[in-house]
Amino acid sequence: MRCRRCSKGRNRIGLAWKRGYIMKLSCILAVCVGVLFGTALAASGGKVPKKYTETIMTKGGEKLSFEMVLIPGGKFVMGSPEAEPSRKNDEDPQHEVHLKPFYLCTTETTYELFITYYEETVQEVKGEAKVVKRYKNKSGSSEDLDAITGPTPIYGDPTMGMGGGKHPSIGTTWHNAMTFCRWLSIKTGKKYRLPTEAEWEYAARAGGQAAYFFGGSPDKLKEYAWFEANSDQMTHEAAKKKPSPWGLYDMLGNVREWVYDFYSPTAYAADAKKQPPVNPMGPKKGKVHVARGGDWDSAASDLRCAARAFEEDWWRFQDPQEPKSKWWLPQMDFIGFRIAISIEPKQ
């Protein structure tokens, strides 16, 4: 178990904000954006753009944007070979995986984007059984409404002293990351989600098969990643290092990234029996989920494209609640997430 910085007696601060009429405006924009995206796809004869920019509006009227880049469909060998230094048993056996094309955000989800979600969905009272925020979905139908039960209030500094703004959001549970995706989907009219573990590794490899997308040695790692050797023991703003060949920033290091899959040390053995698996989504059941990519405090070997991590018991040790919160991982300043979106078939 790695040592983490202990809590420094941060003040208990409840962060809850009033709702505004801008939410209604953003829902109208979501309908328009969804229609325009579909229209552009149809006009291009079914060809999808190599990247696109998503823009949302905050309660205060500020526009926030992020870029999604096309990850081409294809096949790759998932896992690590026996000769790869520092490999672990749960990276075996290597097996071929086929994936359909999808979009992946060029950066990890930033604090400024995550706090917008928090402000619009946070429960008024900690421990409240259910608070519903209703939004029209992309169809605009009065019959077709959805609901978001948002996270409980944050106590203490949500940045954990790492910095807000363009820094990656940290300390959220897998459930919270999934709820963020649901909120963003309703807000934009597109179906955002977490990438699967196979999609994440495929994107991280960027067409290569070595330990890192730039080769088998970690010699160039400082050019692309924040980790124990150069991070100064903190996260850094997104996109300050070189991107991968596929235009992705911080796929290795900075913060670990939640993926969709449940964790199992034998998951690859099950997938290897298929001929070959197409868009695998991991085990159907499990207790904890996978996190990929390593973080600012990781050794270079934990930033290998095949390296796997998962939620461990000690991630919740500093949560005083019983039962433990399903929204927050107090003081776990090394875990974040990145969003993906499938390419819907032409209607």
Defining key terms:
347 residues, four-stranded mixed β-sheet, alpha+beta, five-stranded antiparallel β-sheet, paralog of FGE (formylglycine-generating enzyme), disordered N terminus
Q: Can you give the mean pLDDT?
A: 85
**Order of helical and strand elements:** HEEEEEHEEHEHHEHEEEE
Number of strands: 13
Relevant CATH superfamily: paralog of FGE (formylglycine-generating enzyme)
- Please summarize the sheet with the most strands: 5 strands, antiparallel
Write up what this structure looks like:
- The chain is α+β, with helices and mostly antiparallel strands and 347 residues long.
- It has a single domain (22-342), classed as paralog of FGE (formylglycine-generating enzyme) (Alpha-Beta Complex), CATH 3.90.1580.
- Helices cover 19% and strands 17% of the residues.
- It has helices at 22-43, 111-121, 174-188, 197-205, 221-224, 267-272; strands at 51-57, 63-71, 74-78, 95-99, 102-105, 133-136, 145-148, 192-193, 256-262, 289-292, 308-310, 335-337, 340-342.
- The strands form four sheets. A five-stranded antiparallel sheet has the order 1-2-5-13-8. The chain has a four-stranded mixed sheet with strand order 11-10-9-12.
- A hairpin with an 8-residue loop joins strand 6 and strand 7.
- The model is unreliable at 1-45 and 128-146 (pLDDT under 50).
